[in-house]
Amino acid sequence: MSIVYENYDYENPILTGENGVEVDYKGKWKSEVFNNPGNLCLELACGRGEYTLALAKDNPNENFMGIDVKGARIWRGAKNALEQNLKNVRFLRTRIEQVDLFFDKGEVDEIWITFPDPFHGKDNRKLTHHKFLDRYKYLLKDGGWINFKTDDDNLFDYSLKSINSYQGANILYKNDDIYADELPFKELDYKTHYEKNHLAEGKKIKFIRFTL
Ligand SMILES: C[S@@+](CC[C@H](N)C(=O)[O-])C[C@H]1O[C@@H](n2cnc3c(N)ncnc32)[C@H](O)[C@@H]1O
Fold first, then answer.
1. What is the pLDDT of residues 6-64, one digit of tens each?
2. Coil, helix or strand at residue 11
3. Residue 96 Cα, ligand 1 centroid: separation in angstroms?
4. What is the pLDDT of residues 85-123, one digit of tens each?
5. 3-state SS assignment for residue 69
6. 28, 40, 176, 207 - which has most CB atoms within 10 Å?
């Protein structure tokens, strides 16, 4: 069984599923793919999808999808999910620039963005640029929130400015050193591959939860 959907041709954004067969699940992920009306949560820049798997394990009645452009990482995450028999996990390999093409407006209940790159360089490539916030706003149901975790000071500061200057955005919680005190949400304690590396280097982990 394949739990990975892919879009190879960015000019022609058609998804393929098992055995390269074309699929279209826009508006139908819960009903036709997960067969579960529970919440749908996306992890963007998921890499190997550590957050996706941890959330799925702790919330068996909800649906989780990891999204990244890097195939090898996604396949590793999918293999782990299958080995752990997690029925509520899927992966989507695509560029986040076009993630809105594969979902209906308001189809998503919650988003995690975990240790995304790039941190420096052109702002319009950062996953908290207004260009990306527009896409997340389209995907999310009204009041659905975005969880953003990073180790990078520049990206954290840039993201705060970007969110604060986005019309209608509201920061629900922010912390520039989440492990300094007791965690306010237990999901913050899950650690990705990159997070473990950053912690080993002594970096502080930062977090923002916001609505758009
Ligand atoms: C530093 S890794 C973090 C991976 C994982 N979240 C973790 O914490 O271990 C950043 C990931 O963001 C993904 N990424 C960055 N920009 C992206 C974009 N525009 N579309 C899809 N994936 C993107 C990269 O492919 C990469 O896997």
1. 997 777 878 999 888 999 999 999 999 999 999 999 999 999 999 999 999 999 999 99
2. coil
3. 9
4. 999 999 999 999 999 999 999 999 999 999 999 888 888
5. coil
6. 40
71 CA → ligand 1 middle, Å: 11
pTM (2 d.p.): 0.97
Q: Are 115 and 147 in contact (CB under 8 A)?
A: no
Superfamily designation of domain 24-211: Vaccinia Virus protein VP39 (3.40.50.150)
> Cβ–Cβ contacts within 10 Å for residue 155, how many?
22
Which residues, including other chains, have CB under 8 Å from residue 118's CB and lie 6 or more apart? 125, 126
> Residues lining ligand 1, CB < 6 A?
45-47, 68-70, 73, 95-97, 114-117, 192-195
Nearest CA to 10 among 74, 71, 99?
Answer: 99
Length of the chain: 212
